[in-house]
Amino acid sequence: MKKFTLEEFLELLKKYNVEEIEGVKIEGDLEIELEGSSVDLSAIAPLYSMLSEFGNFLYHANMALGYLQRLSAALGIPTPFAAQPQLAPAAPAAPEAAPAVEELKLPTELVKAKFEPYKEEYPSKIEEVVLGATKADGGSRDYTITLGGERSLAFYTFDAPQPHLPAIAIDVFDRKPMLAKAVRVHYEDVLDNPAEWARKCVKKFGADLVTLHLISTDPLLDDTPASEAVKVLEDVLQAVKCPIIVGGSGNKEKDPEVLEKAAEVAEGERIMLASATLDMDWERIANAAKKYGHVVLSWTQMDINNQKTLNRYLLKRVGMPRDSIVMDPTTAALGYGLDYAFTNMERIRISGLKGDTDLNFPMSSGTTNAWGAREAWMIDSPIEEDTPWGPRELRGPIWEIITGLTLSLAGVDLFMMMHPVAVAVLKEVFNTLGGNVKESVADPGEWIFMEV
Amino acid sequence: MKVKSPLEVYNYLPRTNCGECGFDTCMSFAAHIIDRSVTPLDCKPLVEEAKKDPKAKKKLEELLELTAPEIAEVVIGVGDNAVKIGGEEVLHRHELTFFNPTGFFYDVWDTMDDKALEERCERVVSYKKFYVGNFLTLDGFAVRCTSGDPKRYREVVKKVASYGKPMILVALDPECMKAALEEVADQRPLMYAATEGNWKEFLKMALEYKVPVTLRAKDLDVLKSMAVTFKQAGVKDIVLDPVTEPLGEGLKGTFERVIQLRRTAIAGQDKDVAYPIMITPIAAWLIEGDEVTKSYWEAVIASMFIVKYGDVMIFRSLDQHVVMPTITLRFNIYTDPRTPVQVEPGLRAINDPGPDDPVFITTNFALTYYTVESDLTSGGIKGWLLVLNTEGLGVEVSVAGGQFTASKVKELIEETKIEEKVNHRYLVIPGLAARLQGAIEDETGWKVLVGPMDSGRIKGWLEKNWPPKE
Hints:
The structure holds 2 protein chains of 2 kinds.
Chain A: H1 6-15, E1 24-27, E2 31-34, H2 41-53, H3 59-74, H4 100-103, E3 128-131, E4 145-148, E5 167-173, H5 181-184, H6 194-203, E6 209-213, H7 226-239, E7 244-247, H8 255-265, E8 272-276, H9 282-292, E9 295-299, H10 304-318, E10 325-328, H11 338-354, E11 364-365, H12 374-377, H13 392-410, E12 414-417, H14 420-433
Parallel strand pairs in A: 5-6, 5-12, 6-7, 7-8, 8-9, 9-10, 11-12
Antiparallel strand pairs in A: 1-2, 3-4
Helix pairs in contact in A: 2-3, 6-7, 7-8, 8-9, 9-10, 11-13, 13-14
Chain B: H1 6-10, H2 26-34, H3 44-52, H4 54-66, E1 73-76, E2 83-86, E3 103-109, H5 114-126, E4 129-131, E5 134-136, E6 140-144, H6 150-161, E7 167-170, H7 174-184, E8 190-194, H8 199-209, E9 213-216, H9 220-232, E10 238-241, H10 248-266, E11 278-279, H11 291-307, E12 312-315, H12 320-333, E13 346-350, E14 359-363, H13 366-378, E15 383-388, H14 395-401, H15 406-416, E16 426-429, H16 437-444, E17 447-450, H17 458-465
Parallel strand pairs in B: 3-6, 3-12, 6-7, 7-8, 8-9, 9-10, 11-12, 14-15, 14-16, 16-17
Antiparallel strand pairs in B: 1-2, 4-5, 13-15
Helix pairs in contact in B: 3-4, 6-7, 7-8, 11-12, 15-16
């Protein structure tokens, strides 16, 4: 096709002596304008004949011709030719060629389209881990809790059913811990009695499990001997009939001894030992779990590769059964590294679903960490320019809720929490996304008009 | 983005390595197009050539098409305050990053009295929350037409526009919408919303006023049909609202619709639904319960969809227990995971300190650093702040992980020559690093004081502990 510019076209018009057409002005790149309201038909006619002749290669001419036709139609002037000039073959596929007038022709019906959702299937599945043992299995728990079993991302029940919703454990300490005021007020009456504390968590606050932290064993605190510390565990096992998690103080030297002793006294109850880490004697802790039929929590510091390494040690060197490992990839609070925690967990979960057998274990989160965020507990902002922070009684629980909610979407199966309101709201979220809440709002569009 | 490798982009570039873009080679520039830190329009020779040569223009257009984001990008508002939404490439942030943070819009309505309206607008505009060295702010207003009166609506929209923030116009009645557009179309507001009932009039207005439009339908076949219809008629700036149902099965359904839309757009390459997604947490105010219940649930809905693909949101609550967690979560989720959030290690002088003022130490994790730095600065505390290279880890994690050690503290003291700047040898360490107290004293010969667990309490701590009594 021959290239043709507007300049050349204007040259042509001159050549054919039509530049004198009165009242018609060709302007810019695409527009032809007519001055005045009366149009001299005789002026249009020569244009037509000229354009027809050169129609073969005329892109701009085609535009001009179309314009003239529409113009004649609009002004009620019959076109000087009976047949429409056939310029179509010459019209290139340039999008600019679509005349402006057609844009105003609006559709009267919706173009029917079908939405075909993209399907995602993962080849693997997350291990199922049972916590607690009932009488039938040699324990004394009233019920067990199963974690894991997912074949899709969290709550993507349209991809695959999710056999178990996340569970919530509430923290109990064997010695008064440092607690934010908003949390402390709920436990004030039981702080000196771990067994009562555990009972309150289950009876009043609806905990699925209880985590007993034996922090008094810390050599820097009371240095309680392991054999004495585990008496509290026995009390708690008596006081409540839910599955139990036992934690140490975090002291690298002492924890293996404490957890080993705990494994021994809780034989048959299938508790979870929290935790084995790379920088302590994980072998001793995992061996204790294996020997007495418990579950071990494999805890690493926000590093997917370390998580793989530790899991592999537990599997290969200790020979932990695959149904007895839960991972804690570390929880950072909203605003304090939650993005790292979220992405680390999401990557671990996707790897597990894609078939990485070092990573397809259920995950646990120390959601109570949310209370470390100053937004959760501080009376107001230390930054002067900040908009006032509002009552901290309301900020604290929501900080724990949003930290937990975010990580639940990354795939966490077990939440260790503290504030009763946070526990209740998060349960409601899991039940909602798990399909257990039937009620709905009749007209979700009412907010558009509602007056307040 | 259709292309994945810099090589595919490179072929479209001038390949002269002229360096005008700021990169040494065209290949390097191509790599930055792929990671989206630049666009083809940042190559001056390419743009200049396209102005002269239609063939070059076509090539540039092709390249722009190839490097366009998977999800269309829509701009609401004009000028410095304009908000960009959509433009996303991936389903999970670790695969690249999320790009345009969810737009936060707060509702006002046209049956509010003037005083209440002004107060509410003022709250939105003046909102500030310090975080990682900056202040987080809110994006704009969603002006709801509750009067049903085009004249009143136009009036209120005009008033709200005077605050200079981007707007979403919420009115299903075409007459009201038209009245508002007559007033503020040049501010590029987002229309909310075209539905199965009113789409014809809204389509006409989208074309006539050249403003972005939200399409609202719970049935995804209908939503897609509307998107196709609008696109074919020439509307480019489309936002999809699959209807936020606030409760129970409805909310579960919303979760499914939103994920299906985004996943089908990106993984399923369905361009007809590759638009930004609208979520309306304000719908939480339709549930039964007291104000706290409703506002908590509003925060829950918003958070769910900040994590999962919500590109723009309409909120009711301006209470801090809703705004603070959601605005913080938005920042976290939209932080680029490719760039470590670290600051330069070294020594910072806070508030022009002298030789008698205290010496503090913290980590080079940006969040820790800015928190401590701003607490000291805004608390009017004079002091020296040592910033230790912990490879971008916070205090607790780096103490546990061995990036915060006594020997590294010693090195930092030597490198910064802090001993020449102060006439004492007292170092205040974070409460969370208490266990390093002895080791640092042995290693450095300085006396180590264990500071509070949170730097917000340094001021009170100093009143009791500084100058040290001995």
